[in-house]
């Protein structure tokens, strides 16, 4: 069990809280814990009541076999599943397991810093990443550096372009460094308060990064506000249907003629 690597910023002037506040922005640093699960007994730490959980904002796991991976996903108190694709994975990534994680809002993290300058690692990394993208259909994927050296860090545009190498479209590649990362933070926040309270929100008010909360979101027709305005009844009064009123006197006259 260990926390994610931290990099010391030698020049702190680039993170000026006063400068951010003057521009209407705020800087918030989140704490993350990465659990390398190798034995089933370590899963006891993956519980919301664990004192370790209250000290961290984001919980990530790295499982050593498929059985532990399934149990980490079924546990539900996990935000990220981290993969080091520069090394050979000892278990297959199955579609059913990955789909279960996606339905629970769990994201998959691909580390990229260990492939720089290593051709053998690059080929293995690319092959594993392609497989994950194929079975997940490009959903719930984030790219992180996992770097121990600041020289291994890359900018968001470089990381986005890097994800295009394993078959992601440009729109999904942008989500890897933006929307999906915000979804991880929302999932972590919901995990903390989910057992104590709930909030009812209409589907048409959910943002794109909150779609994971509704697994069948793509199958539910959502009526937008514009469509509602088009369906509002017009102010012009409708003319009453007088056809039936006209036909009733004719029936009475016919009955009177027959009786006479």
Care to describe what's here?
By secondary structure, this protein is of the alpha/beta class. The chain folds into 2 domains: 2-191, Alpha-Beta Barrel (TIM Barrel); 197-224, no CATH class. The chain is built from 9 helices and 6 strands. The chain has helices spanning 17-22, 66-75, 95-103, 119-136, 156-163, 170-176, 179-193, 225-230, 243-259, and strands at residues 2-3, 32-37, 58-63, 80-83, 107-111, 141-144. The chain has a 6-stranded mixed sheet with strand order 1-2-3-4-5-6, sandwiched between helices. β4 (80-83), α3 (95-103) and β5 form a beta-alpha-beta unit. It is globular and about 45 Å long. The model is unreliable at 1-7, 218-228 and 242-247 (pLDDT under 50). Its main location: nucleus. GO terms for molecular function: RNA binding. Residues 232-248 have a biased composition (Polar residues).
Structural class, by secondary structure, is alpha/beta
Gap from first CA to last CA: 104 Å
Q: Helical residue percent?
A: 25-40%
The count of helical stretches stands at 9
Name the beta content range: 5-15%
Low-confidence stretches: 1-7, 218-228, 242-247
* Whole-number total of structural domains: 2
Oligomer: single chain
CATH superfamily of the largest domain: Metal-dependent hydrolases
Radius of gyration: 28 Å
CATH topology of the largest domain: TIM Barrel
Strand arrangement, largest sheet?
Answer: 1-2-3-4-5-6
Major beta-sheet overview: 6 strands, mixed
The geometry reads as globular
Count of beta strands: 6
H/E series: EHEEHEHEHEHHHHH
| Average pLDDT number | 73
CATH class of the largest domain: Alpha Beta
What is the annotated CATH architecture of the largest domain?
A: Alpha-Beta Barrel
Pfam families: RNase_P_p30
Biased composition (Basic residues): 249-260
Family: Belongs to the eukaryotic/archaeal RNase P protein component 3 family.
GO molecular function: RNA binding
């Amino acid at each position: 069990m260990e926390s994610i690597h931290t990099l010391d910023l030698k020049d702190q002037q680039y993170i000026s809280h006063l400068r951010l506040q003057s521009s209407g922005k705020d800087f918030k640093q989140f704490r993350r814990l990465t659990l390398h699960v190798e034995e089933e007994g370590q899963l006891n730490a993956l519980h919301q009541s664990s004192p370790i959980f209250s000290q961290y904002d984001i919980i990530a796991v790295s499982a050593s076999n498929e059985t532990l991976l399934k149990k980490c996903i079924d546990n539900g108190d996990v935000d990220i599943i981290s993969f080091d694709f520069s090394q050979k994975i000892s278990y297959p990534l199955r579609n059913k397991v990955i789909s279960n994680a996606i339905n629970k809002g769990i994201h998959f993290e691909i580390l990229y810093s260990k492939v720089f300058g290593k051709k053998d690692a690059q080929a293995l990394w690319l092959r594993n990443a392609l497989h994950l993208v194929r079975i997940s259909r490009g959903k719930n994927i984030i790219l992180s550096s996992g770097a121990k050296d600041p020289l291994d860090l890359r900018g968001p545009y470089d990381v986005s372009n890097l994800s295009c190498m394993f078959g992601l479209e440009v729109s999904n590649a942008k989500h890897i460094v933006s929307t999906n990362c915000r979804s991880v933070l929302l999932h972590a926040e919901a995990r903390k308060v989910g057992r104590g309270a709930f909030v009812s929100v209409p589907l048409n008010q959910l943002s794109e990064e909150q779609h994971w909360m509704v697994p069948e979101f793509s199958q539910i027709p959502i009526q937008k506000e514009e469509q509602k305005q088009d369906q509002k009844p017009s102010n012009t009064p409708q003319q009453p249907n007088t056809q039936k009123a006209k036909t009733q006197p004719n029936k009475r006259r016919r009955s009177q003629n027959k009786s006479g």
